[in-house]
Design a protein that fits this description.
646 residues; alpha/beta; ABC transporter transmembrane region fold; Rossmann fold; six-stranded mixed beta sheet; four-stranded antiparallel beta sheet; 24 helices; 9% strand; elongated
Length: 646
Amino acid sequence: MDMEVTAWTSLHSAITAQQDRRPFSRATLRRIAVFARPHRRGLTLFLLLSVVGALLAVATPVLASRVVDVIAGGGGGGGGGGTVTRLALLIALIAVAEAGLGLLTRRLSATLGEGLILDLRTAVFDHVQRMPVAFFTRTRTGALVSRLNNDVIGAQRAFSNTLSGMVANTVTLLLTLVVMLSISWQITLLALVLLPVFVLPARRMGARMAALQREASTLNAAMGTQMTERFSAPGATLVKLFGRPADESAEFTARARRVRDIGIRTAMSQSAFITALTLVSALALALVYGVGGAFALRGTLDAGSVVALALLLTRLYAPLTSLAGARVEVMSAMVSFERVFEILDLKPLIAERPDARPVPEGPVAVEFDGVTFGYPSADKVSLASLEEVAALDSRGGTEVLHEVSFRAEPGRMVALVGSSGAGKSTIAQLLPRLYDADAGTVRLGGVDVRDLTAASIRDTVGMVTQDGHLFHESVRANLLLARPEATEAEVWDALRRSRLDGLVVSLPDGLDTVVGERGYRLSGGERQRLTIARLLLARQRVVILDEATAHLDSTSEAAVQEALAEALAGRTAVVIAHRLSTVKAADLILVVEDGRIVERGTHTGLLAAGGRYEELYRTQFATGGPGRDAAAQPAASGGTGATSGA
């Protein structure tokens, strides 16, 4: 390692040391040990090889000094020549050993680091999947993804770089000091006197560079968020309809320009720093050669020792500068662990009991018995750092459902109607256990959903929501999400029954056509019919339709209603609809207002009662009668978001 590389190492360590100075606890170290335990054999071997590498690094300058001594001693005879040859061969063997050891150490480092990344990412991903829907309604997706990427990689550095570096640098430093002191304690002390000139500028420059890097990271994150939001299909549409593209461009350009300026300042500061420290390094070498040469001329030091001291000098400065910031480097790496553990420490509100059992076989009844519910507050489901706010919103827990009770008999349809925000979608979300009731009981097949396995609930309850969400994958992949083992014939049967087979045949790659982000390459009606096809393919015994036909025109709606009628035959159904014409045939209609069931009965009976249902019906058809309902009503008139209470 030459002096310029040493200078770069010093600068990097100093910058890293300034990134985060938060302390870490012993509890964090114990949890890290749990993740490291499966890799302990590889970690032990890695540390041993690092020590051997440090020993070999110090051996080369010592052997080089012996070569110089033999030559300077006039060993031109056969014996001296043989000694030089043997020493040269030994130096060559050490070089080969160092190269091979370096490759092996790098392989172990990569294996340990990537293995740790795999363990951490898998743990976080699996844990996040168990979080309630409320977690995802509050969390910024980019902040969560950053934990899976940047922080996991930062945690990996603690194993693959920081830990091994500390061991290797400590061994190298101790051996180098012992050898240099044994050669000339005077020159060694003089070399150490120059160390503050080498280290202190690095610390000061590190603070400045760290501040610039933090600002650049913040600006890059802001630009990334702006691009992510504006470059999505709905975001781009919003900007074109209501935004000001020129202002958007100006805001982005201002941030990008500041990043450019920081880049220039950073490059110039680095160059000035490296030049200065390289000069100091040259002065240190000059000191060794000057003082050592004087000692050699006086006969108190041989020429080989002067060469050895010069070669050992870089092996002294590099470990010293690295170890000077080792503590804060370790703390910076540990911070990444703590940020990962923050996610793992969030307790899922929905947990499966150890003795959970499957939903009983056969037709399934749905029952709500005195159910009361309020959406959880942010401190129960989220982190301020994931929401990118200073403090979490303390609001929450307010009841949105009050003593809701009803029963849907097996094979029957129950319809929920009422104003937007009345609580209809909230009722629907309790059934597949996206949330748990605060009081009362939700039952499937006569069993409390909290006593059922999550897998059996998924296999029993199917849901089509208003937004008809699709993944950026193929038609086939989006359908098989419901039932991976479905055959090709079953897939096409579901498409036919949802009146979508003709469209899929016309697509360029048929079932393998990618539908785009959130399915935006399809029309709203096509997206919704594809989600209905997914429901048909799943063949679940209980079906929830939350405004499932809201985005369809009258022709498509009529076709899909026929398919749904076929799909719902013999199944228990809970249907939420603002278009009252779609729920006339329901066996039971529940009118929900302010989280309470205020009326219940059949379509005919509720109209005759002259209550809230009759008012909704009369208002909806006042402009032209029932025939106008499917075509005239606005799509998506009621929200399905968890926080809306719809």
